[in-house]
Design a protein that fits this description.
six-stranded mixed beta sheet, ATP binding, binds adenosine-5'-triphosphate, alpha/beta, 14 strands, elongated
């Protein structure tokens, strides 16, 4: 269990993290979401003991990060922002060095290095200096060093930034498979990543937590929760008939896609049956029809553009 209590960080007069409190347990993958400069990286730096908080405490499996930094850091793997490394070492030298720092030697060290090289598909760059690698490979080396000691806690600052789609997929699979026995905290700007890997999402802005819920709970707060989109083979204006359906709050149309309508429900009501009944009674030919669970980008925008008066959503 990680427990964070009223964590704060100021740089001069500027308050980057303004009293964050939460706990995370084993098996959880917590995603930090937030606009640029929200305080995500600064929070991660304090969780890992990389910078000292101005106030508040961090406890990692009972070890206070300031009082017992070695015990806490032993069980943490950290991919910092930008994945810094010793650039003049080759990938193989760098990973062996990190394994040694983590206390491994001999066959154990070699098997640790081979395992992460396989997990992050680094075979083709093993003998190249880290500085000469592409951004995606550097990030994969950064993840490899973070997991080399099989830590109980993984803190990954934008782990898939700069990766190609195949590697993004592979790293998300890796995070999912590692998460069963660990606590994983990631930061990301990719909203689809939250639904793909996180069991819980925290939206942070101006150094404060604005929402802390499962991705599905957050999606359910969107006006598109249970919205129904239909695409019809017809040029007729069907808008009035759809707007008049019971439970429909609004109907959105698209200039670029005539025949496509999105019905927004009022008060969390289902409009699916009313719409399909209307389609059947009119004999309209349907090209496509689907119900949405909600849109995270919509919720993100709403929460992070309403200023700091927003209440915490749980
Ligand atoms: N060492 C520092 N000195 C002064 N200001 C800092 C320092 N580190 C961070 N900040 C400021 O604190 C705020 C939070 O930065 P942080 O890097 O935590 O944001 P972030 O949410 O990770 O943003 P991004 O998504 O852009 O990475 C920013 O305004 C940043 O400029």
């Amino acid at each position: 269990m990680i427990k964070i209590d009223n964590l704060k960080k100021s740089f001069g007069d500027f308050c980057a993290v303004d009293g964050i409190t939460f706990s995370v347990g084993q098996g959880e993958v917590l995603g930090f979401l937030g606009p640029n400069g929200a305080g995500k990286s600064t929070t991660m730096k304090m969780l890992t003991g990389f910078i000292k908080p101005s106030a508040g405490t961090v406890s990692v499996f009972g070890h206070d990060i300031e009082q017992a930094p070695l015990q806490a850091k032993r069980i943490i793997g950290y991919l910092p922002e930008g994945a810094p490394a010793y650039g003049d070492m080759t990938v193989s030298q760098y990973l062996a060095f990190i394994a040694e720092v983590r206390g491994f030697s001999g066959d154990d060290l070699r098997s640790r290095v081979s395992k992460v090289v396989r997990q992050l598909a680094l075979q083709s760059v093993l003998h190249r200096p880290v500085d000469n690698l592409s951004k995606g490979f550097k990030r994969r080396v950064g993840i490899a060093q973070a997991i080399i000691h099989d830590p109980q806690v993984l803190i990954l600052d934008e782990p898939t930034d700069g990766l190609d789609p195949n590697q993004k997929h592979q790293v998300r699979e890796l995070i999912r498979s590692l998460s069963k026995e660990k606590i994983v905290i990631i930061s990301t700007h990719i909203l689809e990543e939250v639904t793909a890997v996180c069991t819980r999402a925290m939206i942070i802005a101006n150094g404060r937590v604005l929402a802390d819920a499962t991705p599905a709970e957050l999606e359910a707060r969107s006006r598109y929760h249970r919205a129904v989109t239909v695409e019809l083979h017809t040029d007729d204006s069907l808008l009035p008939a759809m707007q008049g359906l019971p439970g429909v709050k609004a109907v959105e149309t698209s200039d670029s896609m005539p025949g496509r309508y999105t019905l927004i429900p009022a008060d969390d009501r289902s409009v699916f049956k009313a719409l399909t009944d209307l389609i059947t009674s009119k004999g309209w030919e349907v090209k496509e029809l689907y119900v949405e669970s909600g849109r995270l980008d919509d919720v993100f925008r709403e929460l992070t553009t309403t200023g700091d008066s927003a209440e915490v959503v749980e």
